[in-house]
Automatic annotation (TrEMBL):
This is Isopentenyl-diphosphate delta-isomerase. GO terms for biological process: isoprenoid biosynthetic process. Residues 27-98, 172-338 form the FMN-dependent dehydrogenase domain. It comes from Natranaeroarchaeum sulfidigenes. FMN binds at S67, M68, T69, S97, N128, K194, T224, G275, V276, R277, A296, K297.
Amino acid sequence: MSEPSETEDRKDDHVRIIREEDVETSGTGFADVRLVHEALPELHYDEIDTSTEFLGSQLDAPIVIESMTGGHPNTTEINRALAAAAAETGIAMGVGSQRAGLELDDEELLESYTVVREAGPDAFVYGNLGAAQLREYDLGTVERAVEMIDADALAVHLNYLQEAVQPEGDVDARESLTAIERVAEGLSVPVLVKETGNGISQGTARRLADAGVDAIDVAGKGGTTWSGIEAYRAAAVNERRHEQVGRLFRDWGIPTAASTIECVREHDCVIASGGVRTGRDIAKAIALGARAGGLAKPFLEPAIDGREAVVDMIDGIEAELRTAMFVTGSGSVKALQDAEYVIGGATAEYVDSRR
């Protein structure tokens, strides 16, 4: 095996820092959202239907294991556990950026991606490329990312704040929307666009909808801070200026609840992620109009323990979601989208001021 590349080392750094350091922010806005209790739900708990249509497929529950990792041999077993659990429970899963798999000739590294289809032959799995790289790739190269994992969809991630904090970051954001539109029009599978912890505004959601993307993942403020992660990396190599900027911007962004409200005004398939931690959070997001809710960091430690630990966590989240559906009188995900809710606090102020 060849010496690890800069990209491989960065992937390994990310997993290590997420496990060992304080990389959490607060303020998703979900604490300001209250679902209205239904004392007479007129439902049987066991007959509640948690299934949902998602990008042409049917999920057993509106839960997404958000894109986390891949691109380093150390992540192969993590992705194996996640994919096997996603297949067993009928939910969706994304892989981390496939840039390393496309650009580096390394079979062991490639396995960190291809393992997801091996472990989850029937799972809904989506690929992942950055918008910064999308501008450099022709459509054939992007299709290779799809073929690499026999993907059901492709995510294009927007991480320009992270790139600005990285000492080696790509900070040329020009023509990104044009590249997204080109891929959305020509790719063989649906395309979703996701942020990486800073949220998507209504105006950006409108531009993405006009560009033809099939789904938007808000990935708002309130969960893992990639600016904070890159600040730790910058400190380790004595890049003080990047460290300073990373720490300053670690809580930057649109809170997840507010971003969800804005994006559903422009697109009918929105995933709420960014600090989502429970099935009740997912229920709130769906009541706000989302199609599903996504989690990343909470799955990392269970994935290291193996498939059974991930399945156990998914089952717990599904039970929390089902209970929220029961006590709002929502027999289906579609009914939950019509559930009554009240918004207060800073989220109400944010949403009102944005109107």
